[in-house]
Amino acid sequence: MLGKLEEAEKLFLSALQEAKEGFGDRDPHVASAYNNLAELYRVEKAFDKAEPMYLEAIIILEESFGQEDVRVAAALHNLGQFYLMQRKLEQARGVYEIKRRVLGEAHPDYADTMYHLGTVLSLQGKYKDSEALIRDSIRILEDGGQGESMICTKRMRQLAQIYITTDRIEEAESVLRKILHIMELAKKCLSEVIPPVRIIHFWSSQIFIVFPDLAALCPYSFFSYVVTHILQGWNSLETVIAAERLALTLQSLGNLKEAQELLKRCLDARRALLPKNHIQIAANLLHLARVKMLDSSKLNKSNVAELDLAKDLLSKSISVARGNLVRSVREKGNKQSYGESVTTVRSRQSALIILLQSLDALSLLEMKRLELEDSKDPYNSEAESALRGCISAYKEFVNEKSLSDAPGVKAEYLLCLKHLVDLLSDNRTTSKDRSNNAALQELKDEIKRVEVELSKKGGRRS
């Protein structure tokens, strides 16, 4: 990979020199060469090299075509994405504001620009302004007959997230229901959804970059793959994910029956579409177990069957998540350090987070069982065992740098530590547990250490 990037840089630098010699230093061809080189540096994360290239391309295009030209807007978009990638939000916002002015409301890309600007404002915490922009970008798409497109549903998801963040859960539910309805009905032929010219362009420029494992497939097989996994209702993971988002929102609203029904359907769909040990299945099992635990209306002294079902789901989630971690770490040991994709690293982090959350949920389940049994001693050895398993799992895998540096992983570990301290510190626990002050103090010291590390990284748990 490194060798290919170095070769690409030489080619782009050569193209830039040739453009200057053939057209002059201030020609649009030179601007294009600068932009291509900037994009390469962005991919390499050589940000200090990329930014001046983007800026020089914009200056040349403004000199050649004027500040209001769409080619200038396209170059501004690239610069905006570059700033957004680095979370330089104020710079990104300023660039998108200029692009919006350059395009004007009549331009077909105006809605796209409003969406990107709304995304930046959302990241800045300016949710009211962000909501207005994203809602307008959705309206423009709907007015143009693209209300059921994947682009529009993506923007709806962003709008729903703003509603959730601002505690407007009912409004989020409405948007998420609309998304799921669109996804369930998405059964049109590929040629009706994406014009043939765009298919050819997308195929030539993107498909085998995004899906490298499909390069060996014949055209018909690839076409079948797209239709089956992207455009066929519940045969699509996009639909499953949309349903899961709705289910989790319904859970927060207390609509546990419908949430559980949706999560069961998601689990069935995932088992049909994915390998049996895929990490998404572990997450689905965890979500379903939590809903069963929350559905306290079914739980009483004479009927704890729902807790048993939830425990079985959690045990399966733990098994799948641990299996993913062991396999991923082993495979990493067989590869060179630069050979891992961002997706692989994030998948490993997700697996550990799900493992920690499942063990923590198992501890809460055991405590709930104790409550139903009206035990006079709230201490529960199985609850403690689950939490200690959570801590052991963290220490087992945290030597992997991609895991030790992840704030989300640390936050879940911190929660397990706190739950264990609460369990052992309860005044009504056994005298043996209360007397173990040294072990308890060690846990408290560990909590302080992790909290300091999280504060340095800006990590937090709501």
Automatic annotation (TrEMBL):
<protein>
    <submittedName>
        <fullName>Kinesin light chain</fullName>
    </submittedName>
</protein>
<dbReference type="InterPro" id="IPR019734">
    <property type="entry name" value="TPR_rpt"/>
</dbReference>
<dbReference type="InterPro" id="IPR011990">
    <property type="entry name" value="TPR-like_helical_dom_sf"/>
</dbReference>
<dbReference type="Pfam" id="PF13424">
    <property type="entry name" value="TPR_12"/>
</dbReference>
<dbReference type="Pfam" id="PF13181">
    <property type="entry name" value="TPR_8"/>
</dbReference>
<dbReference type="Pfam" id="PF13374">
    <property type="entry name" value="TPR_10"/>
</dbReference>
